[in-house]
Amino acid sequence: MDDFTAQIYSQVHQIPQGKVSTYGDIAKFAGFPGYARQVGKLLGKLPEGSSLPWHRVINAKGEISLTGNDLERQRSKLIAEGIEVSDVGRIRLGRYRWDGL
DNA sequence: ACTATGACAGTTG
DNA sequence: GCAACTGCCATAG
């Protein structure tokens, strides 16, 4: 587990329930500005039963970057936390965005 | 070494 | 608000 992975993991883990953050911000807060794509790749490799709240991470447009069935899974998890997700997977960042601690 | 690809992002018209 | 373009960086073939 390299330093990058460790930092990203801890950062994602801090996103409070009912809030969301973006790939770019996570990378930035973790100390790796510009590594948004690497964050996405990392989350994609996560095991199913991971304790990491990966579903609280979305893209800068405020939408879920997954497709098909995966998108549905993430949406249900978010809705379960009280976050409003439109039928196309869009979320109001102005309302649910997490700006760090 | 080179190219293509991806759970991305910022700027511009 | 949206589409096109450009910049970004690790991985895979």
From TrEMBL:
The keyword DNA damage applies. The keyword DNA damage applies. Residues 3-83 form the Methylated-DNA-[protein]-cysteine S-methyltransferase DNA binding domain. Pfam families: DNA_binding_1. GO terms for molecular function: catalytic activity. Signal peptide: none annotated. One of its GO terms (biological process) is DNA repair. It comes from the Bacteria. Keywords: DNA damage. InterPro entries: ATL_DNA_repair, MethylDNA_cys_MeTrfase_DNA-bd, MethylDNA_cys_MeTrfase_DNAb, WH-like_DNA-bd_sf. This is MGMT family protein. The lineage of its organism: Bacteria, Pseudomonadati, Pseudomonadota, Gammaproteobacteria, Vibrionales.
